[in-house]
Amino acid sequence: MDNPTFSIIIPFKSWSEELDECLTHIQKLSYSMFEVILLPDDEVGSPSFDFSLDIIPTGSINPAQKRDIGAKKARGVYLVLIDDDAYPQSDWLNVANQVL
């Protein structure tokens, strides 16, 4: 995807079941013009999803610093911040896009 509307930035320490669930919900989003930027402490495997996914290991830094790194790498017009233990509803980005 060349020009996503949204860049979803997710900082986390290590892979977890909560992150799997978060990404499963993201895959079900009805709005498709987005990319996902994952920011773990260390290298992680690259899972297969039907959306643009970038994994940037950051080392052991705080979530705000991770978000800053994600923001610099983002290609989207808008930054969307979510934690790895949050599960967005399928219309999450549609609603955001309507109020922009």
Structural description of this entry:
- There is one protein chain.
- Strands 3-2-1-4 form a four-stranded parallel β-sheet, with helices on one face.
- It has 100 residues and is of the alpha/beta class.
- The chain is globular, with a radius of gyration of 13 Å.
- The protein is built from three helices and four strands; from the N terminus they run βαββαβα.
- The model has no long low-confidence stretch (mean pLDDT 95).
- Helix 1 (17-27) links the parallel strand 1 (6-11) and strand 2.
Low-pLDDT parts are none
| Global shape | globular
- The count of helical stretches stands at 3
Major sheet strand order: 3-2-1-4
Mean pLDDT value:
95
Rg value: 13 Å
- Number of separate strands: 4
Distance between the termini: 21 Å
Percent of residues in beta strands?
Answer: 15-25%
Helix coverage percent = 25-40%
The biggest beta sheet reads:
4 strands, parallel
Class from helix and strand fractions: alpha/beta
Give the helices and strands as they follow along the chain.
EHEEHEH
Secondary structure elements and their pairing?
Elements: E1 6-11, H1 17-27, E2 34-39, E3 52-55, H2 63-73, E4 78-81, H3 92-99
Parallel strand pairs: 1-2, 1-4, 2-3
